[in-house]
Amino acid sequence: MQTVGEIMTKELVTVKPEDSVAKVAKLMERTKIGGLPVVEGGRLVGIVTSRDIRRCHPNRLIADAMTREVVTVPHTCSLWEAKELLERHGIERLVVVDGDYPVGVVTRSLLYAELGKYIDALTGLHKAEFIQRKAMELLQDGKEIAIIFLDLDNFGAVDKKLGHVVGDEILCRVSKVLGDVVEEGFDYLFRYAGDEFAVVTVKPLEEARKLALRMVNAISEEKWPPGIKVAASAGVAGGRRASPRQGGFEPYTLSDLINMASLASTRAKKEGRQVVVAGEVELRETSCI
């Protein structure tokens, strides 16, 4: 999982509490930086922004203008956690720290540019990398998950008959149809690859099965252009544990669920069924050899 430490700006421009507002205003203008960490004795004691500067008299000290409660993150913080912090606090940058010592800065623009690499340009959905991050996050929070793996039927024939432009239009429409079915806060929809989509949900297994069925039906019931038939098959995998989950085994749990859901969707397609459930599973905490 990519972290802010990998993308942060390491060459810090900092100021001191005893610096004047006028001096820091000139520094901001020269460096084109709108927010600077305030450091005293090597430790982070605040942050001052261009907005703070405009509100203070030039002769005042930065100690009077700065914000002392700084939103910080460790260099191990994931990009998605950093994004949530920025949006929750309505700020433009995060100071990256090692203990009390600032080691870098990550801005909203830099973070969004990096996260854009994980967004599917065609459908606007998150890519497979994000399904891994979201599922891991839910598992580490102690929640149980189910995976729905949905595969369009005979989509290669559509591309060959009508061309990739039409195929791309269908994929975009499918993503919108599925987006209208999933429930925000409970279900997380992704484009897995090609004509495959996936959902991570915190709903119980039976509710996940019903969701998969609604998704498949929504696709088949959509009013597609004349001569075009779009259908899908889905596989579901998930379950409850008989004993508390120990930390560190989430990657194995996630890999198992994705694999089982994928195999279940393949089975559904072969058997001409809409949805196949891999079964409620008890995943053992054993490391991969």
Summarize the structure.
With 289 residues, this protein is an alpha+beta fold. Helix content is 41%, strand content 21%. It has two domains: 4-115, CBS-domain (Roll); 122-280, Reverse transcriptase/Diguanylate cyclase domain (Alpha-Beta Plaits, 2-Layer Sandwich), CATH 3.30.70.270.
Structure, described:
- Residues 241-245 and 280-289 have low confidence and may be disordered.
- The chain has helices at 21-31, 50-55, 62-65, 79-89, 108-115, 128-140, 155-162, 164-181, 205-221, 250-271; strands at residues 35-40, 43-49, 72-74, 93-98, 101-107, 146-152, 187-193, 196-201, 232-238, 275-280.
- The chain folds into two domains: 4-115, Roll (CBS-domain), CATH 3.10.580.10; 122-280, Reverse transcriptase/Diguanylate cyclase domain (Alpha-Beta Plaits, 2-Layer Sandwich).
- It contains ten helices and ten strands.
- Helix 4 crosses helix 5 (108-115) and helix 8 crosses helix 9 (205-221).
- It has 289 residues and is an alpha+beta fold.
- The longest helix has 22 residues, at 250-271.
- The strands form three sheets. A five-stranded mixed β-sheet has the order 7-8-6-9-10. A three-stranded mixed β-sheet has the order 3-4-5. A two-stranded antiparallel sheet has the order 1-2.
CATH architecture of the largest domain: 2-Layer Sandwich
Number of strands: 10
Strand order, main sheet: write it out.
7-8-6-9-10
Count the domains.
2
The amount of beta strand, in percent, is: 15-25%
- Secondary-structure element order, as H and E? HEEHHEHEEHHEHHEEHEHE
Helix content estimate: 40-55%
How many helices in DSSP terms? 10
Distance between the termini: 22 Å
Task: Give the CATH level 1 class of the largest domain.
Answer: Alpha Beta
Mean pLDDT, to the nearest integer, reads: 86
Strand pairing plus helix content: what structural class? alpha+beta
